[in-house]
From TrEMBL:
Keyword Signal assigned: yes
Catalytic activity: [protein]-peptidylproline (omega=180) = [protein]-peptidylproline (omega=0)
InterPro entries: EF-hand-dom_pair (IPR011992), EF_Hand_1_Ca_BS (IPR018247), EF_hand_dom (IPR002048), FKBP-like_isomerase (IPR051989), PPIase_dom_sf (IPR046357), PPIase_FKBP_dom (IPR001179)
Name assigned to this protein: peptidylprolyl isomerase
UniProt-annotated location(s): Endoplasmic reticulum
Keyword presence, Endoplasmic reticulum: yes
GO cellular component: endoplasmic reticulum
Residue ranges of every copy of the EF-hand domain listed in the record: 480-507, 517-552
Domain PPIase FKBP-type as annotated: residue spans: 38-126, 150-238, 262-350, 374-461
Start and end residues of each stretch annotated as Disordered: 526-557
Gene3D superfamilies tied to this protein: 3.10.50.40, EF-hand
Keywords: Calcium, Endoplasmic reticulum, Glycoprotein, Isomerase, Metal-binding, Repeat, Rotamase, Signal
The species this protein was found in: Eulacestoma nigropectus (wattled ploughbill)
Main location: endoplasmic reticulum
Length: 557
């Protein structure tokens, strides 16, 4: 029938047409909607006569034609020819005179009784009863919160007309579109289309013209009465009234203490935007971030977010931009008005006023003698960071650690923790950095690190006062030099001196400064007495330390 109407060589001219002839020469694979009576449509067309002479064209005017289908505002042939069309469908229409401009025509343009040929492409279809069409393309598994009116949003978008013609894109500008929702800053359809979105969600939003730019359109890119299609990716959002949001990912069962203002905290972190983009990480630098909290050294949101953390806690801190880097952002990695997410692992914290924390794990019964400064002790220890990282252990060596307490041979915190211990006692010591290795740390010890020691006192020897290598238990002999000169030759060489001192120790009359090498202590004593370093001590050279100290007092007086 169609071939007959259009004219087939074998059949000849069938005569006048009774209805519109429709040739659907291009039908899109996807047709979400067909034009119905009462629908508002936008389309382009070329109008010609049978001989191909053009009488009109929307393309030549540079503007699409917009109108309502089936209500008599178009010639009857066009009204019928547009019905059932899909967006982007193309049709050839042959309109007989009685469905076109009839026996009158259009003066100077269309002669009477003219058959009209139209080549039409449908660009847009909508109805006054249409609503916003929202399709969720993807949505994150975790969605703790969705967009509400008065929220500030940051999103990327591609904007096209219903026929796919692009008119704008945030991606081409290299930055998100940032604005408030529900306050009149956006077209109504976008205001509604963003509601209920999660950060990271993707949506397709089809907006009818009366919820977009309506009869006026927008500039040269959005024609009047155009439906708009936005493909939206919500990057992040917040509300100006938001505070810091905390999510406790892992909290140790034992939390004896929580961080407060003025504490110095060491922590690792990954910093991301709400869409997951990593902007910074302490792990990448292989060192913790160390700072005081509550004193303004870090962004306000992190100052608040670290309050109350436990040692070893893992916490997520979500910070709105007004508590982070605000409208300007920071550098090229944190955009303006960005919500920041920090996944924090607290390694340790302390306060500059902290003492050594001592926990007695085991104390033997009948503990009457305890360590004091100047005592010589042997002990085993394991040293670690508070996150469990092992640093040092005396068990890695053949012998226990040996030290004279109070002689500045070990860090102050360990020295304090070894005082008042019994042999066999075991303790756990928590040593803050100002009593440990300080801000600079030491070999294998990070700066400002709190240290954990497990110590066991193996043995102890009573010490001697500072500056002494040997002390008498009673009064020294009245004729000390004569008793020390064993062969009575008027001089005391090193071997005689050593033999005499060892005898006094063996008989309990005195004691040496405790040491793992008593021979060296005796050699030091001899060298101190041998004033002229000639290898022997004369009567004039031999002096008790108490007498030397008294002489110094007189000299000062």
């Amino acid at each position: 029938l169609l071939l007959g109407i259009l004219g087939a060589p074998a059949l000849g001219d069938p005569g006048p047409l009774e209805d519109v002839v429709i040739d659907r020469y291009y039908i899109p694979k996807i047709c979400l909607r067909e034009a119905q009576m009462g629908d508002f449509v936008r389309y382009h067309y070329n109008g010609t006569f049978k001989d191909g002479k053009k009488f009109d064209s929307s393309y030549d005017r540079g503007a699409t034609v917009a109108g309502v289908v089936g209500v008599g505002r178009l010639i009857t042939g066009m009204d019928r020819g547009l019905q059932g069309m899909c967006v982007n469908e193309r049709r050839h229409l042959i309109v007989p005179p009685h469905l076109g401009y009839g026996s009158i025509g259009v003066a100077g343009l269309i002669p009477p009784d003219a058959t009209l040929y139209f080549d039409v492409v449908m660009l847009d279809i909508w109805n006054k009863n249409d609503k916003l069409q929202i399709t969720t393309l993807s949505k994150p598994e975790r969605c703790n919160r969705t967009v509400e009116n008065s929220d500030f949003v940051r999103y990327h978008y591609n904007g096209t007309l219903l026929d796919g013609t692009p008119f704008d894109s945030s991606y081409s500008k290299g930055s998100t579109y940032d604005t408030y929702v529900g306050t009149g800053w956006l077209i109504k359809g976008m205001d509604q289309g963003l509601l209920g979105m999660c950060a990271g969600e993707k949506r397709s939003i089809i907006i009818p013209p009366f919820l977009a730019y309506g009869e006026k359109g927008y500039g040269t890119v959005i024609p009047p009465q155009a439906s708009l299609v936005f493909s939206v990716l919500l990057v992040d959002f917040h509300n100006p009234k938001d505070g810091v949001f905390l999510e406790h990912l892992e909290v140790p069962e034992s939390c004896k203490r929580r961080a407060v203002t003025g504490d110095f905290v060491r922590y690792h972190y990954n910093g991301t935007l709400m869409d997951g983009t990593l902007f910074d990480s302490s792990y990448s630098r292989n060192e913790t971030y160390n700072t005081y909290i509550g004193k303004g050294y870090i962004i306000p949101g992190m100052d608040q977010g670290l309050q109350g953390v436990c040692m070893g806690e893992q916490r997520r801190v979500v910070i709105p931009p007004h508590l982070a880097y605000g409208e300007n952002g920071a550098g090229d990695k944190i955009p303006g008005s960005a919500v920041l997410i920090f996944d924090v692992h607290v390694i340790d914290f302390h306060n500059p006023a902290d003492p050594v924390e001592i926990e007695t794990v085991f104390r033997p019964e009948g503990c009457n003698v305890t360590t004091r400064n100047r005592d010589f002790v042997r002990y085993h220890y394991n040293c670690s960071l508070l996150d469990g990282t092992r640093l040092f252990s005396s068990h890695d060596y053949e012998k226990p650690q040996e030290v004279t307490l109070g002689a500045n041979k070990v860090i102050e915190g360990l020295n304090s923790g070894l005082l008042d211990m019994c042999a066999g006692e075991r303790r756990v010591l928590i040593v803050p950095p100002h009593l440990g290795h300080g801000e600079n740390g030491a070999r294998g010890v990070p700066g400002s690190a709190v240290l954990r020691f497990e110590v066991e006192l193996i043995s102890m020897e009573e010490g001697v006062p500072e500056g002494y290598l040997f002390i008498w238990h009673g009064e020294p002999p009245a004729s000390l030099y004569e008793q020390m000169d064993l062969n009575k030759d008027g001089e005391i060489p090193a071997d005689e001196f050593s033999t005499f001192i060892k005898t006094q120790v063996a008989e309990g009359k005195g004691r040496l400064m405790p040491s793992s090498d008593p021979e060296k202590v005796i050699a030091d004593m001899f060298q101190n007495q041998d004033r002229n370093q000639d290898g022997k001590i004369t009567p004039d050279e031999l002096k008790l330390k108490s007498d030397e100290d008294q002489e110094k007092i007189h000299e000062e007086l």
